[in-house]
């Protein structure tokens, strides 16, 4: 677990996070299509720059949204995002 917390997540190659005006939501674009994201997923992915550790992403989210105890939810989301190929660890 500590290895994961110190890993630096970034958007996977071939994917791009952006606001899609027509859809009125953030999306992940990739060559074969697009994934519509809910606000929570978009907020987490916005901090996945490949420079911050998972702990840094959690701290940034807690600071930005004045929230606490986001660790379990963020780690679970990132695990799923890696499984789907959206995120890679550097």
From TrEMBL:
Which biological process, per GO, is one annotated for this protein?
pyrroloquinoline quinone biosynthetic process
What is its pathway?
Cofactor biosynthesis; pyrroloquinoline quinone biosynthesis
Keyword Cell wall biogenesis/degradation in record: no
Q: Which InterPro entries match?
A: PQQD (IPR008792), PqqD_bac (IPR022479), PqqD_sf (IPR041881)
Q: What family name appears in the similarity comment?
A: Belongs to the PqqD family.
What assembly does the database describe for this protein? Monomer. Interacts with PqqE.
Return the protein name.
PqqA binding protein
């Amino acid at each position: 677990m500590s290895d994961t917390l110190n890993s630096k997540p970034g958007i996977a190659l071939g994917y791009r996070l952006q606001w899609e005006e027509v859809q009125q939501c953030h999306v992940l674009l990739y060559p074969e299509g697009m994934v519509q994201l809910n606000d929570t997923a978009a907020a987490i992915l916005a901090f996945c720059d490949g420079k911050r550790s998972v702990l840094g992403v959690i701290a940034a989210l807690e600071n930005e949204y004045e929230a606490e105890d986001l660790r379990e939810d963020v780690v679970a989301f990132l695990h799923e995002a890696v499984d789907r190929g959206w995120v890679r660890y550097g």
